[in-house]
Amino acid sequence: MTPLDGFLATWSRARATFGTGIPRGGEWLDGDRLSQLQTAVDAAHPGSYWTGAAATAYGERNARQAQRIGRVAVLDRELGSCVTESALTVSVGRQSLEAVRDWVLATARAVPPGSHREQFLAPIVLQGLTQLRQAVTSSSSELDVIASRIRLLADEYADLRTEEERQGQNEDDETSSIQSVDLKQGPGGVGDRRFNEIEAFHTVFGRLPVSAADWTTAAVLDPHSYDPAAAGVAPEVVLARIDPVAGQGVVRVGQWIEQRDVISGPWRRDFGNTRGADPQFDPANTKVTAYIDYENGLVVMRQNPSVELTPDGGPGDVRVGVPEAAVQQLPDGSVRIQYDAGNPFAPDIATNPPWPLQDNPWTVNGDLVVTPTADGVRVDGTRTDYPSMEVYQDLPDGTTRTVLIDPATAGNSTGPMINLPQHHDIGAGGSAFAPFDQGSWNPKYDIRVPLPWTELGPAAAPPRGPTIQSPGVVHF
Description:
Elements: H1 3-16, H2 31-42, H3 53-109, H4 117-178, H5 190-205, H6 212-221, E1 236-241, E2 250-256, E3 261-265, E4 268-271, E5 288-293, E6 298-303, E7 306-309, E8 315-319, E9 324-329, E10 335-342, H7 348-351, E11 363-371, E12 378-384, E13 388-394, E14 400-406, H8 415-419, E15 423-426, H9 434-437, E16 440-442, E17 447-449, E18 454-455
Helix pairs in contact: 1-3, 1-4, 2-3, 3-4, 4-5, 5-6
């Protein structure tokens, strides 16, 4: 290897530390939206038309809620500023590296051929390596400072959560004075949620979320519920590590019920999500969600709590099921995910039906293949006819691409009972499974066999899928 070859190899390793794609700033951390919400909540004070002890208690609680939302808005703006500075630092670092490489190559081209060429190249390469080290060190130092600021913000989110918990205990003592009042519900625990996202991400990756992909994944990893109807019952979250595919961003697969409530069994109804397709859907506002974070190398499956309706139509019993999922991955980064998520209120016969229906349980299940391409991911496979499914790809340049919208076959409250046992193809259907079913080689019998599966597990110890081998062969 010549000195110039050695420099280029070192340069490539240094460049890899800055990632791929266009770094996204923190504009999406919308503190302005929270400020508008603070104004709306603050405007909901009792006013002159309602007086007395209950009105006073409500007004005080409403004011505290508005104040908390305002504080979270400020923290979100500061966090967004940190993310923007981080993106700028990465961009400047990349430009510095490219400038060093261009200088070394241009100077090297000016050295005439001959027996002493390598000798003349040595000081050029040495100076290039020095500038390379300075550029990486400078960027790393700036990113360390930004990371320290984010850690301080995480502490402030934590302090806000502690205040909310303490205030919540005090508000419990006030309940007797306002027990007959139907309080307006604000976004309780907004600061708590941001802290929980940071904590959930740190548990898995051992670092704080910085990029847009980090924060997107942090939201689905958060093992908490914030909808008052869920009564504090947490979602079930399972995950597995895969090999990253830089530049493909995060693929979000949401399955949701469009109606307010649906039939879940004889004389039983469950709450739906009461929404249409939404490119910015909240992972907590789905029934079942799968995220493939190609930037960080992670697959996440999340099942949110199910809420039964009471006879008068309000929220009643709350339960959550544990989703089952397993993944395979091809050398090109394609991910196959098989999943099965049952309604926790459903009888055992629904999730484990007898013959001849044993392969058609009343669960949300499917077998999907997500394939990266130059134009973004493609989704193929098969899934149940219910509920509706939406697939989006958040790219590193900050854009969101709609990959697929697949409405439920029955757009009414009978959907779970009628459609769950039925399936239909997505894209190329089952033909997309062939590379996975024949992706490994058994040398003992000289035959092709399926790629190994990795079952998704807990966040505390996420299982690791087999490292991708070229050409996708796993030796036994």
